[in-house]
Amino acid sequence: MPCHSLRDLNTLQLEVNAQHYVAITSLRQLRELLPCSEPTLILGGGSNVLFTQDYEGMLLHNQLRGIEITECEDYYHLSVAGGENWHDLVIYCAEQGIGGLENLALIPGTVGAAPVQNIGAYGVELSDVCRAVEAFSLTSAERKTFSSEQCQFGYRDSVFKVERDWFISRVDFKLAKHWRPQLGYGELQRWGQQLGLDLKPLDVAKQVIAIRQSKLPNPKVTPNVGSFFKNPVVDKAIASALLSQYPTMPSYPAGTQTKLAAGWLIDQVGLKGFTVGGAAVHQRQALVLINQFQATATDIVQLAHIVRNKVEQQFNVRLEPEVNFIAQLGYSNLDEVLSDV
After folding, report:
1. Which CATH number is 8's domain given?
2. What is the CATH number of the domain that holds 194?
3. 148, 169, 227, 251: which one is catalytic?
């Protein structure tokens, strides 16, 4: 049976394989493969996936390339291939003085994966700048352009997390020429106040990089998938009750609800540095689970289970994983994976 090692294609560096592997480098190649008759998985940068076992289907690795920039009086319009590296795109724009993406610097992964999660950081989300997404159906070969509204963006969510059938070939962005830095997030706000208002997109990008590097381990050195859990969003009444008990608890407005800091919750239950097999909760950032030494998927799954249970026992808040669990024939979730461990 043919197989392809995925160790270097997932940032947890887990020893897993795919039965069939195809690197997609052109739309013509993609069209020739569609529609797919076997279970098919789309892989970008491998930075937000946890393979729980070998994948027994066809894995399509998005390696489409290309960046086109046009402009009108008030906006830059970018059309970017799905296989482009996300951080490289951010820096490419910032170096040309094109603002709007800089708060999302150093987020791992590809452009095509960015809408799936509706990536966000430091007060900016992809949905703020995304104009449209072009995608191909794996089962029907249909080519469709989704407007921003049709993407149904939510907090780390989109229609593409529900309808896993779409291979994202291109993302279109609309970036304002009359750029203003978004510095509402605590550390960025303090930094901006010190430097004044004469900032350029590249200045902000460099500061975001510095902040992220001070908090988050480099996956090339310490294998990880970044934030393992979403920051929980709860009713204001629940947040108020928790704040009365834990006055120093970080909290942020989230529409009619309140967003809590998952890393803080995990830290409060004393799990920084906690290990299961070769997996560990990172010593500096509790929101990150790492492959400390030859961890298996089972190690990481069991560690995630312990973290979620401890937080729920103390705060009555249930953490939801941000990472995508990939089982033998496709997507799964933490509860399903635990039942198989």
Report:
1. 3.30.43.10
2. 3.30.465.10
3. 227
Using 50, 70 and 90 to split pLDDT, how confident is the model at 184? confident
Is 286 within 8 Å of 294 (Cβ atoms)?
no
Range of the domain at 304: 224-340
75: which residues sit within 8 A by CB, 6+ positions away?
A: 174, 175, 176, 177
Token digits of residue 266:
């995990």
The CA radius of gyration of the chain, in Å to the nearest whole number, is 20
156 an active-site residue?
A: yes
Residue 8: strand, helix, or coil: helix
Hey, is 182 helix, strand or coil? coil
Residues 104 and 32 in one domain: no
Element (H, E) at 167: strand 166-176
Identify the bridge partners of residue 43 per DSSP, sorted by sequence position.
61
User: What is the spatial distance between Cα 26 and Cα 63, in angstroms, rounded to a whole number?
Assistant: 8
CA–CA separation, 67 vs 234, rounded Å?
Answer: 39
Q: Is 227 a catalytic residue?
A: yes
Per-residue model confidence (pLDDT) at position 2: 64
Strand blocks (E) in 6-151: 17-24, 40-43, 49-51, 55-62, 67-71, 75-81, 120-121, 124-125, 130-137, 143-147
Look-up of token digits 């310490």: 222
Q: Contact 85/110 with Cβ under 8 angstroms?
A: yes
**What single letter denotes the amino acid at residue 160?**
F
Active-site hit among 125, 148, 156, 332: 156
Which one of 15, 312, 320, 322 is the catalytic residue? 322
Number of domains into which the chain is organized: 3
Torsion of CA 7, 12, 14, 18, to 10 degrees: -50
C-alpha dist (Å) from residue 188 to 56, 133, 250, 288, 338: 44, 30, 16, 21, 39
pLDDT digit string (tens) for 212-227? Answer: 999 899 999 999 999 9
